[in-house]
């Protein structure tokens, strides 16, 4: 694999990110242990919570990066069509569209970096359809894969490249627009799910501070530990199920 290419199927944390998210996860784990068990010997149970938290953050950031690449690809298609309409070849159009994407999202954007690399490789006479096919496979973004296939067919059959790519680009843009609309609608549902996830925590905190003597009987004995462990397991299952429900793939 060529050095510097982004591997979209994995996400590597920097040392600072590992430190940050493991620290946050440890804080969350200690809070859960205090809330459910209120016993120092149970503190080691915070370790798997910290590891899970960091892994979940990494998964979220990987998904967000892939989704961002797909969304920005829509703007690239619009810029490419403009360049083709102005009379540029596909290869020159990619270079022009790269400038537009770089202006919109900055040099550090994933798609801007990919287009910069493509522009350099096009100068080495590497076929443009090969570059997009490679990016589609590496990123796993279906819209990029589909575009690469259409581009390869258009290059083989000839014809009005701008018309062929505009039709393909319109279909892809409509799909991305639909996905963004669903994402916006789901944002409210995710917020509700987060609020509902905090309700049991709030109830336990309220009971601990308002009815301390009553709740204290749940700590420091085997029946209490078993009951709290069962409740925690049910809560975690419900939390996981809620996250799955509000996550929609288009």
UniProtKB/TrEMBL annotation:
<keyword id="KW-1003">Cell membrane</keyword>
<feature type="transmembrane region" description="Helical">
    <location>
        <begin position="28"/>
        <end position="55"/>
    </location>
</feature>
<keyword id="KW-0812">Transmembrane</keyword>
<dbReference type="InterPro" id="IPR018076">
    <property type="entry name" value="T2SS_GspF_dom"/>
</dbReference>
<dbReference type="GO" id="GO:0005886">
    <property type="term" value="C:plasma membrane"/>
</dbReference>
<keyword id="KW-0472">Membrane</keyword>
<feature type="transmembrane region" description="Helical">
    <location>
        <begin position="195"/>
        <end position="215"/>
    </location>
</feature>
<dbReference type="Pfam" id="PF00482">
    <property type="entry name" value="T2SSF"/>
</dbReference>
<feature type="domain" description="Type II secretion system protein GspF">
    <location>
        <begin position="76"/>
        <end position="206"/>
    </location>
</feature>
<protein>
    <submittedName>
        <fullName>Type II secretion system F family protein</fullName>
    </submittedName>
</protein>
<feature type="transmembrane region" description="Helical">
    <location>
        <begin position="221"/>
        <end position="241"/>
    </location>
</feature>
<keyword id="KW-1133">Transmembrane helix</keyword>
């Amino acid at each position: 694999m060529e050095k510097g290419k982004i591997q979209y199927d994995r996400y590597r944390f920097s040392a600072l990110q590992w430190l940050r998210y493991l620290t946050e996860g440890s804080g969350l784990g200690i809070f859960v242990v205090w809330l459910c068990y209120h016993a120092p010997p149970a503190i080691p149970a915070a370790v798997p919570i910290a590891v899970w938290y960091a892994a979940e953050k990494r998964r979220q950031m990987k998904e967000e990066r892939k989704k961002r690449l797909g969304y920005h690809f829509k703007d690239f298609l619009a810029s490419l069509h403009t360049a083709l309409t102005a009379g540029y070849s596909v290869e020159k159009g990619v270079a022009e569209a790269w400038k537009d994407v770089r202006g919109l999202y900055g040099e550090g954007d994933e798609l801007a970096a990919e287009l910069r690399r493509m522009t350099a490789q096009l100068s080495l006479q590497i076929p443009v359809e090969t570059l997009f096919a490679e990016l589609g496979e590496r990123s796993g973004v279906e819209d990029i894969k589909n575009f690469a296939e259409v581009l390869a067919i258009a290059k083989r059959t000839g014809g009005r490249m701008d018309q062929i790519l505009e039709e393909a680009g319109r279909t892809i843009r409509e799909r991305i627009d639909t996905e963004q609309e669903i994402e916006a609608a789901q944002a409210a549902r995710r917020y509700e799910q987060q609020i509902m996830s905090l309700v049991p925590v709030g109830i336990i905190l309220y009971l601990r501070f308002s009815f301390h003597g009553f709740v204290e009987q749940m700590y420091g004995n085997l029946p209490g530990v078993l009951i709290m462990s069962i409740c925690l397991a049910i809560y975690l299952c419900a939390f996981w199920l809620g996250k799955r429900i509000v996550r929609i793939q288009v």
